[in-house]
Amino acid sequence: MPGLPEVETVRRTILPHVVGRRIVRVDVRETRLRRPIAPDFAHRLVGRRIHGVARRAKYLVLDVGDGLLWIVHLGMSGRFCVGEPPGDLPHVHVVVDLEAGGRLYFRDPRRFGLMLLARDERDLGIVGVEPLEAEFSPHFLWQTTRRHRRTSIKSLLMDQRRIAGLGNIYANEALFAAGIRPTRRSGKLTRAESERLVGAVREVLERAIASRGSSLLDYRDADGNEGEFQRLLAVYERDGEPCRRCGEPIKRGVTTGRSTFYCPRCQR
DNA sequence: AACGCGCCCTGTCCGC
DNA sequence: TGCGGACAGGGCGCGT
Q: Which secondary-structure segment (H or E) carries A177?
């Protein structure tokens, strides 16, 4: 469910509730996530203080001191919430009590999420560049398209080994904003288009973060609030509806197994 | 090597 | 109303 803007929104929402607080109890109710939660997870976390909350790609990285990192990934259906989970709420896999009555819980019906402790975020094996950092430059993108000429530009944008954090919604939206058809072979991108696309990715992500993410089915931030960006989506899940720019009906297709939306007139 | 596909899992929606 | 199938925002392992 959550893409980079949603994860960034969750990071900002939990921050004031957790920073500086000590973890007093960890209740692991279900270990079977994408990878099993380690048997010593709770034991290692209890008693530690949360010093900060960072984000790397779509991963939340909580600094719990002594170089130890508490890593949380929300997968497709994960939520990381502040407060008491309703007693009858299913799929609440982890509950963390903080000192002075604060509480966090992790809920993930599909169990594609991840919860682990690591010494180094490099243990996650994320090698792609952050799309909101300077390293994601027009030159970088153009060079990447020259190394992977045959794949579609949308697959390349979503390949976490190259660019880490861009998911299906925002790849579609950025390609619309840049006027590039998602199925275009990467090798056919011009330098000018690479530059436009980098700008479009940045702008789309920043606008989505400013709107606190997109709530399509059931995304909520850690305080339970919906995002607003779904109302501003130009193409995602708008197949058959008129393009906001030219009025042409938005088309839907499938690229490398994922739904792809584009305007046949604005995107070439 | 690099790419695309299928799978992990539950919930929802749609057509019959 | 019930049921089967398609699909969902992510990521990984495998086969080609």
A: helix A168-178
Chain-centre distance for alpha carbon A137? 20
Give the lowest-confidence range in A12-16, A69-73, A86-90: A86-90
Residue A255 CA to B6 C1' — how many Å?
Answer: 14
Q: Specify the nucleotide whose C1' lies closest to residue A185 (CA).
A: B3
Six token digits for residue A61:
């990285």
The amino acid that residue A54 corresponds to is A
pLDDT recorded at residue A127: 86
- Report the C-alpha gap between A225 and A190 in whole angstroms: 41
Domains and CATH numbers, chain A: 4-124 (3.20.190.10), 138-262 (1.10.8.50)
Q: What is the pLDDT of residue A1?
A: 65
Residues 6+ positions from A162 with CB-CB distance below 8 Å: A128, A129, A144, A148, A156
What pTM did the predictor assign?
0.97
Amino acid at A262: Y
Query: Residue A135, Cα to own-chain centre: how many angstroms?
Result: 18
pLDDT at position A234 over 70: yes
CA atoms A177, A179, A185, A186: torsion sign: negative
For the CA of A74 and the C1' of C13, the distance in angstroms is: 20
